[in-house]
Write a structure and sequence with these properties.
Layout: E1 2-6, E2 16-21, E3 26-31, E4 36-40, E5 56-61, E6 65-70, E7 75-79, H1 80-84, E8 94-99, E9 104-108, E10 113-116, E11 127-132, E12 136-141, E13 146-150, E14 166-172, E15 175-180, E16 185-189, E17 205-210, E18 214-219, E19 224-228, E20 244-249, E21 253-258, E22 263-267, E23 283-288, E24 292-297, E25 302-306, E26 322-327, E27 331-336, E28 341-345, E29 359-364, E30 368-373, E31 378-382, E32 393-399, E33 402-407, E34 412-416, E35 432-437, E36 441-446, E37 451-455, E38 471-476, E39 480-485, E40 490-494, E41 510-515, E42 520-524, E43 534-538, E44 541-547, E45 553-558, E46 567-568, E47 574-576, E48 579-585, E49 592-597
């Protein structure tokens, strides 16, 4: 049995105060309560912020990591690039952060700069603002001048002679923007696609943002101007974009924050980076128990359904501020934003130890529970005994009667029932980035996006299909397994007696999965409906056109209808007056065309 919950791409009620489009294929927004929403590609954990993260005042996404500034002047982050090179623990009094593809800058309140994966010039001080390009850095000093260092391809680190009276800077890829006090812009570096050619007579600019090969400017009247590469529509503004108060340009996509606190996104959408977060009342996480399920909404409220014999589906009255959920055999757990845990259902496994705090992750087994604390240690209760000395843990998983812990060095520890070998770690297993405990088996995703399984395999549930890769998550049932790819598609294998291993036809845009004994769940963003494809014949040439909207579609063709297969149509489209246009010579053999979502 399958269930899927669609998440709307619109944001009629959620309010944000800042936006950040990454150099990779993901996006971020800072909520007014200091929490962060992240969506898009998640192959390195860049779209999974810590569960209890709060108090954030600024965002700095890199290629596959994010650094954030908190309201106490400290810095934290997540994603593969951040985990390997942390800022010093003593870093404090930070007032701004900026990230390049693999380096990060932190501006302190005393006007000095601290860098990660970068070397700051000697005696640099009196800094008022910072910006990080692909592999170079910029700082704006309090006297209105700019200093640059790092990779100088295309002259990215060569500041124009005489540049002064600068009030804001932006960098990305190999180009830079400087906003002057008179509301005009100076650009330098990469000149491909006109990215450094500022539109003539552009004035009254109040904010700037540099994309991979395109640029954005926000004017005082709330309108936006874009120029540079437009291969994905990133420089074609949505027709109704008005009332903008903040902008952010990613590699090939953009975000705009409007005065009403809502978001607008456009450009490349290959990983859902322009599908803005759902409204508060919609579902953001799911968890499947033996015969019950939990749904976490974006406002921190919880819904449960299914078997309630032990009260596992009766959510405690007044429960709110939930950051993460986990469902056991007959009990449920909720991690709150304050780092505490609430449990309900079967007695013992749901009785949280008194005083438990500083929790960053939870996991529910059949008749026990686990909590991962911020110091890297694990607390267990119910029928679980955590190994003595277990430390440096960054992730936990529990199911059935065994547990897994992922340590910071990429190795895995296991304990509990080992009847099927589910707690016997394969020899040499390393470079693990995610772990998943099934009822009688275990699975792990490695840094190369492949998976490995061990334990009970009576229905083939631990045998990974040949060639399966590019994975971001796995869900293990009793006799079947699901895998979620980074492109939002789901693959299932093992027993399909209840239909739990075969995803519904056309299921895509998935960002979370869960699996139980007889059913599976998926959270998905519904694909946008294709726009109307218009056909014309001009001077003996066939011309196909469709609106150049923020959603990304491919033009596909076939020689018959219904077609057994569709192929990408050539030549590539060009953009003419807000329309994608493809011109082909009329062929003797009839062809059929369609628009398909990326």
């Amino acid at each position: 049995m399958w269930g899927w919950i669609a998440r709307s791409p619109s944001t009629p009620g959620e309010r944000f105060i800042a936006v950040a489009a990454s150099g990779g294929y993901y996006s971020e927004a800072l909520r007014s309560d200091g929490t962060v929403a992240v969506w898009g590609l998640n192959d390195a954990g860049q779209s999974t912020p810590p569960a209890a993260l709060s108090g954030v005042v600024a965002l700095a996404p890199g290629l596959d990591f994010t650094v954030v500034l908190k309201n106490d002047g400290t810095v934290t982050g997540w994603g593969s690039g951040y985990v390997h090179d942390l800022f010093p623990a003593s870093l404090s009094n930070v007032v701004a952060v900026a990230s390049g593809r693999s380096h990060t800058l932190a501006l302190k309140g005393d006007g000095t700069v601290v860098a990660r994966n970068d070397i700051v010039p000697n005696n640099l001080n009196n800094v008022a603002a910072i910006a990080a390009g692909g592999y170079h850095s910029l700082v704006l000093q309090s006297n209105g001048t700019v200093v640059a260092w790092g990779d100088n391809i295309f002259g990215a680190s060569t500041v124009p002679t005489g540049l002064s009276n600068v009030v804001a800077i932006a960098a990305n890829g190999a180009h830079n923007l400087a906003l002057k006090s008179d509301g005009t812009i100076v650009a330098w570096g990469d000149t491909n696609s006109g990215v450094s050619t500022v539109p003539t007579n552009l004035t009254n600019v109040v904010a700037i943002s540099a994309g991979g090969t395109h640029s954005l400017a926000l004017q005082a009247d709330g309108t936006v101007v874009a120029w540079g590469d437009n291969g994905y529509g990133q420089s074609t503004l949505p027709a109704t974009l008005r009332g903008v108060v903040a902008i952010s340009a990613g590699d090939s996509h953009n975000l705009a924050l409007k005065s009403d606190g809502t978001l607008v996104a456009w450009g490349k959408n290959n990983y859902g980076q322009t599908m803005t977060p759902a409204e508060f009342e919609e579902v953001s996480a799911i968890a499947a128990g033996f015969t019950h399920a939990l749904l976490l909404k974006r406002d921190g409220m919880l819904t449960a359904f299914g078997d309630d014999y032990y009260g596992q589906s009766t959510v405690p009255a007044g429960l709110s501020g939930v950051a993460a959920i986990s469902a056991g055999y007959w009990h449920s757990l909720a991690l709150l934003t304050n780092g505490t845990v609430v449990g309900w259902g079967n007695y013992g496994s749901s009785t949280v130890p008194a005083g438990l705090s500083n929790v960053m992750a939870i996991a529910a087994g059949d008749f026990y529970s686990l909590a991962l604390q911020t110091n890297g240690t694990v607390v267990g209760w119910g029928s679980s005994t955590v190994p003595v000395g277990l430390s440096n843990v960054i992730s936990i998983s529990a199911r059935g009667r065994h547990s897994l812990a992922l340590q910071s060095n990429g190795t895995v520890s296991a304990w509990g029932d080992d009847f099927y070998g589910q707690s016997t770690i394969p020899t040499g297993l390393s470079d693990v980035t995610a772990i998943f405990a099934g009822p009688e088996n275990s699975l792990a995703i490695k840094s190369d996006g492949t998976a490995i399984g061990w334990g009970n395999n009576d229905a083939g549930q631990s045998t990974i299909p040949d060639g399966l890769s590019d994975l971001q998550s796995v869900a293990a049932g009793y006799t079947a397994t699901l895998a979620l790819r980074n492109d939002g598609t789901v693959v299932g294998w093992g027993s399909n007696f209840y239909g739990q291993a075969v995803p519904p036809p056309g299921l895509g845009g998935v960002f979370a999965i869960a699996m139980s004994f007889q059913f599976s769940l998926a959270l998905a963003i519904p694909s946008p409906a294709p726009p109307r494809l218009v056909f014309n014949v001009v001077a003996g040439q066939m011309v196909l056109s469709w609106p150049a909207t923020g959603a990304a579609f491919d033009l596909e063709c076939a020689t018959s209808s219904p077609a057994s297969s569709w192929s990408h149509a050539l030549p590539e489209p060009t953009i003419v007056e807000g329309q994608y246009v493809v011109t082909n010579a009329l062929l003797g053999t009839a062809k059929f065309y369609r628009l398909a979502s990326h």
